[in-house]
Amino acid sequence: MVAHCADPFLELTTVWLYDQVRSLRRYRSMVLTQAVRNAHLFPFDAIHDLSKVNPIQRVWHRVGRRIDGQHRGYGSVMRQEGAVVAHAHYGHEGFRCLSAAADAGIPLVTTFYGFDAGSLPRDPVWRRRLEILFDRGDLFLAEGPAMAGRIERLGCSADRLRVQPLGIDLRNFTEVSLNQRQNQVLMYASFREKKGHLFGVRAFARAFGDDGKMSLELVGDGPLRPDVEAEVSRLGIEGRTRFHGALPHVEAIRKLESCRLLLYPSVTASDGDTEGGAPVALLEAMACGTPIVSTRHADIPFVAPNGVCSLLSEELDVDGLADAMRAVVTEDGLASRLAAAGRAQVERQHDLDKQVSALESIYDEVKRK
């Protein structure tokens, strides 16, 4: 039994985590969390929502976490369920589960994903907490080498650090011929600074300002949406831009299958937040055979190598993004080459079955220590 600690669990943005947890073969899984969202979309029975305890326990849990940052109640559930490994998802969850794993007498694996290695360490309290985590945790996972390097620079010992790429279930994706695609550029991300929407819409306007055939489709929602809507208006491209909001995952994938290219202009946010590894949307695009235009940010070059599976520009480079989009749309054979190479890359490096097998080997490793 592996006790997965994730808070919240079953968000639309963590479909990959749901797939990973339910796909383990040699280990059973349970989830410990403080909140469950979208459970009707992702059915999973073995969830212990520690917010659903009686009022006195709930107050005790909150007070205890405020005192020392540790989750209360997790350790006893781990013991009762016979967990042999605790796997915390995100660095802050790793720290919060240290006492629980020690109480249960089991090793703790922590996966970092982005803000937990970017903006979180800027807080002196959390920087110290991460140092404690790196001292007491058993093993640490990163999506790619750039993320692993960042974690090591924060103080994680290299001999307790592994690169563990994300996996997606390729059976959920269909390669669609580029000849069947619509003249659409898709941006598929939450409206947060690190997603680079403002640079993306500027690049679209620069690339296709005089091309009435191309439209810009935006899937997602978030706090910066009003700013992006204002920029679209300022650029005069409202008539060719559609904001779809946050769609169910299946509908978002259909958009990936029908667009000419995925535009993902990630940047380092002003608070230090980054993609950490690479956006899952890139893996999904490659699985659909959708060409990618993105940036040299975090582990994006590892996931979608420039000139092979994608065309990458520097962060904030509107002209570079615009040139790349025009090339994908106009250069003979380029889009097809990127699409084929992308599908091959995701099959080789991000297939869910392969990555689940690798993760189970990691669990074997920490159990033997």
How would you describe this structure in keywords?
Rossmann fold; 369 residues; 7-stranded parallel sheet; 43% helix; alpha/beta
Compose a concise summary of this entry.
With 369 residues, this protein is of the alpha/beta class. It is built from 15 helices and 13 strands.
Structural class by helix and strand composition: alpha/beta
* Parts with pLDDT < 50 across at least 5 consecutive residues: none
For the secondary structure, the number of strands is: 13
Mean pLDDT: 92
| Percentage of residues in helical conformation | 40-55%
Q: What does this protein structure show overall?
A:
With 369 residues, the chain is an alpha/beta fold. The protein folds into 2 domains: 2-167 and 351-368, Rossmann fold (3-Layer(aba) Sandwich), CATH 3.40.50.2000; 170-349, Rossmann fold (3-Layer(aba) Sandwich), CATH 3.40.50.2000. The chain is 43% helix and 15% strand. It is built from 15 helices and 13 strands. α1 (15-23) links the parallel β1 (2-5) and β2 (29-33). The mean pLDDT is 92.
What is the fold's blueprint, element by element?
Blueprint: E1 2-5, H1 15-23, E2 29-33, E3 47-49, H2 55-68, H3 74-81, E4 85-89, H4 91-96, H5 98-104, E5 108-111, H6 124-136, E6 139-142, H7 145-153, E7 161-163, E8 184-188, H8 197-208, E9 215-219, H9 225-235, E10 241-245, H10 249-258, E11 261-264, H11 280-288, E12 292-295, H12 300-303, E13 310-313, H13 318-330, H14 334-349, H15 352-368
Parallel strand pairs: 1-2, 1-4, 2-3, 4-5, 5-6, 6-7, 8-9, 8-11, 9-10, 11-12, 12-13
